[in-house]
Specification:
Elements (H helix, E strand, L loop, with lengths): L2 E5 L11 H9 L2 E4 L2 H11 L5 E3 L6 H11 L3 E4 L13 H9 L4 E4 L4 H9 L6 E6 L4 H11 L5 E7 H15 L3 E6 L7 E6 H10 L5 E6 L10 H15 L1
Parallel strand pairs: 1-4, 1-5, 2-3, 2-4, 6-7
Antiparallel strand pairs: 7-10, 8-9, 8-10
The structure holds S-adenosylmethionine.
Protein name: Ribosomal RNA small subunit methyltransferase I
EC number: 2.1.1.198
InterPro entries: 4pyrrol_Mease, 4pyrrol_Methylase_sf, 4pyrrole_Mease_sub1, 4pyrrole_Mease_sub2, rRNA_ssu_MeTfrase_I, RsmI_HTH, SAM_MeTrfase_RsmI_CS
Length: about 240
């Protein structure tokens, strides 16, 4: 049926393409991609031959209007280079426009590095904030991190290897002593999850920037310290017992 299909694709291992995603990509009349060469490899792998067109959120309104004009009568799939479209990737303006025009939008859930990293890190997952990429410039990055400092949630960032050391240093300085994980190359040959405090991780990666694709996961701030007189008495008693 016609409409816009948001199709998640693998973030490393081609085996993670869902059966439904392959089916929709094979049947689509048009596939919107970030980079045609990247998507061509995936299409070749599943024997899909639909025509491709480049789409970005900064594509012009005219381009978007042309795509919208086709959605009423054709099946158009949106993919990104890897993972779930719209998650630190193009697509939301197109979805918004399709909805505003009363056209149907379907999503095909699948891999996303943020969720995959959360499942590996061993940090609380009941409440998390996906913060995407930190700004590249030092001042903007410091402000972005400061804004997150008091949030009682696990934080998830996308990062590149070359900036990882700087990002971890900033996080260690502004968020204090927290557990964290650097998750790398998920679902690929060199998949790795390194855990430690932010300071330990900053130290490690400042010296040797890692290769590959990276997600940083940071634990929430520790629960508030006990502050009342009773709690203080209790803390003192425990400390004295420990010394004897
Ligand atoms: N839309 C994608 C998703 O759903 O995961 C994310 C796109 S974003 C432009 C690319 C970033 O995702 C990379 O810089 C990296 O931080 C993260 N990423 C993508 N694939 C990854 C992988 N296999 N392992 C770790 N991080 C990955």
């Amino acid at each position: 049926p016609p409409g816009l299909y948001i199709v998640a694709t693998p973030i490393g291992n081609l085996g993670d393409l869902t059966v439904r995603a392959a089916d929709v990509l094979r049947r689509a009349n048009l596939i919107l991609a970030e980079d045609k060469r990247v998507t061509a490899k995936l299409l070749a792998h599943i024997g899909a031959t639909a025509p491709m067109q480049v789409y970005h959120d900064h594509s012009s309104e005219t381009d978007r209007a042309r795509v919208l004009a086709r959605l009423g009568s054709e099946a158009v799939a949106l993919v990104s280079d890897a993972g779930t479209p719209l998650i630190s990737d193009p697509g939301y303006k197109l979805v918004r426009a399709a909805r505003a025009a009363g056209l149907s939008v379907h999503t095909l859930p699948g891999p996303s590095a943020a969720i995959a990293a959360l499942t590996l890190a061993g940090l609380p997952t009941d409440r998390f904030l996906f913060a995407g990429f930190l700004p590249a410039k030092a001042k903007a990055r410091a402000e972005a991190v400061a804004e997150l400092a008091s949030l009682r949630a696990t934080l998830v960032f996308y990062e590149s290897g070359s900036r990882l050391g700087d990002a971890l240093t900033e996080l260690a300085e502004r968020l204090g002593q927290r557990d964290a994980a650097v998750v790398r190359e998920i679902s690929k040959l060199h998949e790795e999850c390194v855990t430690g405090t932010l300071a330990e991780l900053a130290d490690r990666y400042r010296k040797t920037p890692p290769r590959g694709e990276i997600v940083i996961v940071v634990a929430p701030p520790a629960a508030a310290e006990p502050a009342g007189a009773d709690a203080l008495d209790e803390a003192l008693r425990t400390a004295m017992v420990d010394e004897s």
